[in-house]
TrEMBL record:
Highest rank taxon of the organism: Eukaryota
UniProt entry keywords in alphabetical sequence: Apoptosis, Hydrolase, Protease, Thiol protease, Zymogen
Domain named Caspase family p20: residues: 176-307
Lineage summary: Eukaryota, Metazoa, Ecdysozoa, Arthropoda, Hexapoda
Stored Pfam families: Peptidase_C14 (PF00656)
The name this protein goes by in its record: Uncharacterized protein
SMART domains per UniProt: CASc
Leader sequence segment: none
Domain (CARD): residue spans on this chain: 1-69
Organism: Orchesella dallaii
Similarity remark: Belongs to the peptidase C14A family.
Cross-referenced InterPro entries: CARD, Caspase-like_dom_sf, DEATH-like_dom_sf, Pept_C14, Pept_C14_caspase, Pept_C14_p10, Pept_C14_p20, Pept_C14A
Length: 405
């Protein structure tokens, strides 16, 4: 693939991931054209089946850019009316024309574009995209000058507030009750200290307090400590948190976990691995106990690289039906999550910024797309393998989720 083609895909990867519709026949076309292998296709299908609505697409585009004819094969396939990928096709066509590469496009692509005027495939799907073409000043100050983020949640005003009765499914502030459980492990046995990550704890606490959530654990020493979060302690405190949520009939839960880690696992202070499901599954029965839907938001700040060869994985908890849940992660599989040793992790900085600025009148799903775009902009000067792409897996969280009523 030529560099200009690679640049288009990498710079707009989040948009492409969001708007590429999954189907087995769509992937089969790329196997036939030898862009991906059968094994790679099966791997993506498994990710999709497990609820990875963006993870499969991230891996798909990582493979596309490695192939000489990947761009044109992608474009021709998206133009096939059998696959309903017209928005992506128009977007790729227009970007190629804007790059002065009209002559390289297949004839079928030029036939789909009546002129060289701006194609609005992207804008039709997300009118806010152009507003996110550059980083906002606060995030740019971090990138350029290493300035820490000042966390202050902007509350609803008469001019900017959620629509009337926005949370039809859940009760949120000020009428509902929200609890946040924060585990941020700064030192893991056998690992280098996570310098700067102490700011993640402070920023998440300020953010959740701004949303009127109560913070757990209540012991400040445990909350802010550098090395007390052993696996035994994590499981014990999570159990206490769950019982507290039941007793107080909570309406919304946020669980933040930060540490060193690898794909789908974090490391506790004593160097023990914990699978994501060890945080997510135990809280799933709260809905049935309280006889109401409880919004459950899980946030994981950890690298997602390969498992160390010497490490033994934990025995996973029994499968649990998962609903009213969304899981937001710092990075896609096989990649490392970035951290500034002064200000904190890139993912938490961007996530906190977006939520504190826009939550007063914007639903969570839309804010997460904005967060993803900012993460790509923050990464634009990095090597492709170092790009920060923060996926989320939605398992039944209602689309009408706002942090404020």
């Amino acid at each position: 693939m030529e560099q200009w083609q690679k640049d288009i895909i990498v710079s707009n990867k989040i948009y492409l991931m969001d708007n590429t519709a999954y189907s087995v026949k769509f992937l089969d076309t790329f196997v036939t054209n030898e862009v991906i292998s059968k094994e790679e296709k099966e791997k993506m299908e498994c990710k999709r089946d497990r609820g990875g609505s963006t993870e499969w697409a991230s891996e798909f585009y990582d493979l596309i850019i490695k192939k000489d004819k990947g761009y044109n094969i992608l474009l021709e396939t998206c133009l096939d009316k059998n696959f309903a990928q017209q928005a992506v096709a128009k977007f790729l066509t227009q970007k190629a024309i804007e790059a002065g590469m009209r002559h390289t496009l297949p004839k079928i692509a030029l036939g789909s574009s009546s002129s060289t005027s701006s194609v609005k495939g992207q804008d039709q799907l997300d009118s806010s995209y152009d507003d996110d073409s550059s980083l906002p000043e606060e995030l740019n100050d971090f990138v350029l000058y290493g300035k820490p983020l000042t966390v202050k949640v902007e509350e609803p005003t008469e001019e900017r507030k959620p629509p009337v009765n926005p949370n039809k499914t859940y009760k949120l502030s000020p009428n509902g009750k929200g609890y946040a459980f924060i585990v941020n492990i700064l030192n893991c046995n056998g690992c280098v200290p996570r310098k700067g990550a102490e700011n993640d704890t402070k920023n998440m606490v300020k953010l959740m307090k701004g949303f009127k959530y109560e913070i757990f654990p209540e012991d400040p020493y445990l909350l802010y400590t550098e090395s007390k979060w052993t696996k035994e302690t994590v499981l014990s405190e999570l159990k206490k948190f769950k019982e507290q949520c039941k007793r107080d009939e909570v309406d919304s839960i946020v669980v933040f976990v930060g540490s060193h880690g690898f794909e789908n696992h974090i490391l506790t202070a004593d160097g023990q691995p914990m699978h994501d499901s060890e945080f997510i599954n135990p809280l799933q029965d709260i809905d049935s106990v309280l006889l109401k839907p409880v919004a459950k938001i899980f946030i994981t700040q950890a690298c997602q690289g390969e498992k160390p060869d010497w490490m033994t994985l934990p025995v996973l908890p029994p499968p649990a039906p998962i609903n009213h849940t969304i899981h937001i992660k710092a990075q896609v599989p096989k990649r490392e999550a970035g951290r500034d040793e002064k200000c904190g992790t890139y993912f938490v900085l961007v996530l906190v910024y977006v939520l504190m600025k826009f939550a007063r009148d914007t639903k969570l799903h839309k804010m997460l797309k904005k967060m993803q775009r900012y993460m790509v902009l923050l990464s634009k000067d990095l090597k492709l393998e170092d790009y920060q792409i923060s996926p989320y897996t939605d398992t039944g969280l209602a689309e009408d989720f706002y942090f404020f009523n």
